[in-house]
Amino acid sequence: MDTLSYKTVSANKETVNKEWIVIDANDLILGRMATIAAKFLRGKYKTNFTPHVDCGDNVIIINAEKVKLTGNKMSDKQYIRHTGYPGGQRTQTAAELMAKKPTAVVEKAIKGMLPKNRLGSDLFRNLFVYEGPEHPHEAQKPKAIDINKIK
Question: What is the mean pLDDT of the chain?
Fold first, then answer.
């Protein structure tokens, strides 16, 4: 048996082909949409997926203010941050955060599903979230993806 013909191909920055993908978040459930967006950002569906390389696609999410949360999560879910001072822990509900900055809810959901290291920071830079149906990335000719058809 010729073992030299069985080589594992690893992707690197030069060999990766990145695409642009548009996801319309209108009436989609936040967590289910975020998992699929995180998979596209990470590139896990590609045949040449390499865990330590940014081989994912650029993801554009439009209509972020129309995303849904199931159950009582809109009033019960808490987003916690800290000011850095003693006693500086602050909390916001999902409804308060949606009223103030609707894109932050989608960004926080997707960021929590990415790796917690330098690669995760690089992957998060490939995510673009917009409130309305318009985005400034038409020159990249993004493909529209229907989340309901992806399993």
Answer: 94
